[in-house]
Structure formats: structure tokens, C-alpha cells
Automatic annotation (TrEMBL):
The keyword Cell wall biogenesis/degradation applies. This is UDP-N-acetylenolpyruvoylglucosamine reductase. GO terms for molecular function: UDP-N-acetylmuramate dehydrogenase activity. Cell wall formation. It is an enzyme of class 1 (oxidoreductase). Residues 21-186 form the FAD-binding PCMH-type domain. InterPro entries: FAD-bd_PCMH, FAD-bd_PCMH-like_sf, FAD-bd_PCMH_sub1, FAD-bd_PCMH_sub2, MurB, MurB_C, MurB_C_sf, Oxid_FAD_bind_N. Transmembrane segments: none annotated. It is found in: Cytoplasm. Keywords: Cell cycle, Cell division, Cell shape, Cell wall biogenesis/degradation, Cytoplasm, FAD, Flavoprotein, NADP, Oxidoreductase, Peptidoglycan synthesis. It holds the Pfam family FAD_binding_4. NCBIfam families: murB, PRK13905.1. The gene is murB. Coiled coil: none annotated.
């Protein structure tokens, strides 16, 4: 159906849009191309008393087979990026990898750790993404969001409540719309070298040839999740079409038309096994949502 000039798809599967290529159907799906369209969609959902779910690139998320009720909005077409001296301001739907490459071309350092991370800028802030000694909180200065009352609010770094894979947006219901990073001038070749090293490390250790959500579990204090899983003889364990990667035990890959429920069931199997063997509770880094 149409809302002004915005197409709203009905009974649409999320699988084609997700990094894992899994996901149940949503009642309504829209992909706004401007912030005005996003505002119109939020207003429509409120008028229709529909719950709203906002996503970037569905790169750290598992949607169960039963899908989601209400309106789901994908922000990946909101992706403008602007560079101003030492700062980069990017729309929430901008590709994080493209932002790191743009930073390098302008001789700005601080995002090299994110060079190969799939996902959106908004998702990186929401989860305080990090790798190889870097985290989103190290380079973010301000975040602008649309709050549940539809007011636009700008958050400074000290208001974002960053923690390990955590930000304030996991509690306050705000929809991230843009992020400003403050970076450090450096030699382009040195920045590129650090990015190349990180990308090589990813390609060498991670199963990039299959759809996945990256690292599934948070790092337990005093342990590494991947080693606990490997030492529990779980590499290659499979439920449905989803398998614990034989290349990196911390990853689960979609090798044969897996489903969201397959992911969740395999996650539970790994958690139970590791808890039984090592008495360590693995907490998920990926979010699992939707109806069974």
C-alpha cells in the first residue's frame, strides 16, 4: 500500500534483507528515503496503534520464524555521509565499512577497527560495536535520535551510557538518525595499513563465505566464548540449516536455508552445553526478537 509516496509492503519476509538470510515475516515493512518519510511512517504507525521496529542492516539480529507484528522500518537508504575537518557525520543507515574507507581517504584515524564490520552506523552505536581494541564509544561525540514522543534529541558522549555492547538506546526507545565521529589526522598509508591488517585477520579467522551475524556471544569475564565452545566439541554442531562454524567457534553460519528458530535453538544448545561443561553462562551479543 501507499502512504503519500512511500511504499509499505505487507506480510513481507525479512530474510532477503538480513545478513544471515533468515527472518520471519513482518506485518508491514517500509524503507524510507528521507527523514521526512521516516517521520511520516512513525506518525502513521502511531495513528494506527501499530508497534514500530527500527533496523539498520539487520547484521546483529535474529528474527524468529513467527516474525514481527506492526511496522518494521529499515534505515539502509538513509546513508548520507559528510566530512568536516576532523569530524564525520553519517546517517544511521550509512554502511559502517564505507565510513571507515571515507575516513581513510581524508587522512582521519580512529575507525580502523571497524574496517570490515558489516552493518550500519546506527547499529554500531546501538550495540557499541567494537573489535581489535577499538569501540564505537572511543570516536563518537554526538548522536541525534527521534524519541518516542517524536521530538528530536541530541545526545553527547557522556549521555550515551556506553558499556560493553550497550548504549542508552537499548532502553530509551530512541531511533538513531545520525552520528558524529571525531577522529585524528594521520598519514593515509598508515591508516590503510592498519585497516588491511584487520581485514586480513578477519578473513583468516572468520567464516566470511557463509551468511552469519558475526560473533554470537559476549565475551565472558575471564574466558573467550569461542574457546569455550570449541573445547565443548561444538564446532560443526548443527540444527536445521544453521551450524557452529568449523572455522571460528564463536560464529554460527547459515549453510542450508536455516531459519531464525534454527539460530535460536542452536544458541540455546551451545549455552546449555557450555554451562554443563564449564559452569559458564554465555550471554548473546546478537539480539533475538519476534514470535516463534
Amino acid at each position: 500500500m501507499k502512504l503519500n509516496d512511500i511504499t509499505i509492503l505487507e506480510n513481507q519476509s525479512l530474510a532477503p534483507y538480513a545478513h544471515t538470510q533468515v527472518g520471519g515475516k513482518v506485518d508491514y515493512l517500509a524503507i524510507p528515503k528521507t527523514y521526512l518519510e521516516l517521520q511520516q511512517l512513525l506518525n502513521w504507525a502511531k495513528s494506527q496503534e501499530q508497534p514500530v521496529h527500527i533496523f539498520g542492516r539487520l547484521s546483529n539480529l535474529v528474527v524468529r520464524n513467527g516474525g514481527l507484528r506492526g511496522l518494521s522500518i529499515l534505515l539502509h537508504d538513509l546513508r548520507d555521509i559528510k566530512v568536516d575537518q576532523h569530524t564525520i557525520t553519517a546517517d544511521a543507515g550509512a554502511d559502517l565499512i564505507l565510513v571507515t574507507e571515507l575516513a581513510m581517504t581524508h587522512g582521519l584515524a580512529g575507525l580502523e577497527w571497524a574496517a570490515g564490520i558489516p552493518g550500519s552506523v546506527g547499529g554500531a552505536v546501538f550495540m557499541n560495536a567494537g573489535a581489535y581494541g577499538g569501540q564505537t564509544e572511543m570516536v563518537v561525540t554526538t548522536v541525534t535520535a527521534i524519541m518516542p514522543d517524536f521530538k528530536v534529541q541530541t545526545f553527547n558522549l557522556n549521555e550515551l551510557e556506553f558499556g560493553y555492547r550497550h548504549s542508552i538506546f537499548q532502553e530509551n526507545g530512541g531511533v538513531i538518525v545520525s552520528v558524529t565521529f571525531t577522529l585524528t589526522p594521520d598519514v593515509k598509508s598508515a591508516i590503510q595499513l592498519r585497516m588491511d591488517v584487520n581485514n586480513y585477520r578477519r578473513a583468516d579467522k572468520q567464516p566470511l563465505n557463509y551468511p552469519s551475524n558475526g560473533s554470537v556471544f559476549k565475551r565472558p569475564e575471564g574466558y573467550f566464548a569461542g574457546k569455550l565452545i570449541m573445547d565443548s566439541d561444538l564446532q560443526g554442531a548443527r540444527i536445521g540449516g544453521v551450524e557452529v562454524s568449523k572455522k571460528h567457534a564463536g560464529f554460527m553460519v547459515n549453510i542450508d536455508n536455516g531459519t531464525g528458530n534454527d539460530y535460536e535453538d542452536l544458541i540455546h544448545h551451545v549455552q546449555v552445553t557450555v554451562k554443563k561443561k564449564f559452569n559458564v553462562t554465555l550471554e548473546t551479543e546478537v539480539r533475538i526478537i519476534g514470535e516463534r
